[in-house]
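request received
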Amino acid sequence: MAKLTDHARELLTGPNFAFVAELMEDGWPHVSPVWVDLEGDLILVNTAVGRLKERNLRRDERVALSISPLDNPYDHVDIRGRVVRVIDGDEAVAHIDRLGKKYRGWDRYPLPEGEQRVSFLIEPISVR
Amino acid sequence: MAKLTDHARELLTGPNFAFVAELMEDGWPHVSPVWVDLEGDLILVNTAVGRLKERNLRRDERVALSISPLDNPYDHVDIRGRVVRVIDGDEAVAHIDRLGKKYRGWDRYPLPEGEQRVSFLIEPISVR
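response:
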């Protein structure tokens, strides 16, 4: 496990988007922007059950992400990591509420009827 | 080859950053922000010879990228693509000059002494 730099921690706890890359079933990379936060020394990502990102992260632990301040992509931190825990149910809903508050100021995330959430905790392996 | 939507073309030709994911030698994804442009219907990425991204893109054609306006990551287009051409030498230097103009307004990219550039042309396979 790599130690996150202060700058990486600051970017991950601020309302900045992380572009998270994971692997498709055929080995191709897939990348999209997501909300993130820290959970201790692990990186928290939350998505809806059934999405491509969920299927990819459940199948293969290997991820990479790049995060930068919204107004300055030159100031980016690139992280290689590994999914070490998958969280379903109420705890995952509490996570998306927390992210909705952080990014949008919402008291509760407007969860669509029937949508289930899932969280992935990512251990950083290298930070550059 | 997938047809780029008008919105994808607009994002790719504007001064927006693309977060490009490619594959490391061990199959792990790697993602970082890069300057991009269109070259006809192909996506142009340019980097310095010797960088991780260059080694990855030469070794494995499989790439993914996510691009959005600087001020609105919610409005992102995610593309799967394949490197179909690698360009070295003067043509690659002309590309980085063009990108420096587009992103920074520079008449010439301030190429460090001894740095060689390389361009990758990426064919879009799917656009979402």
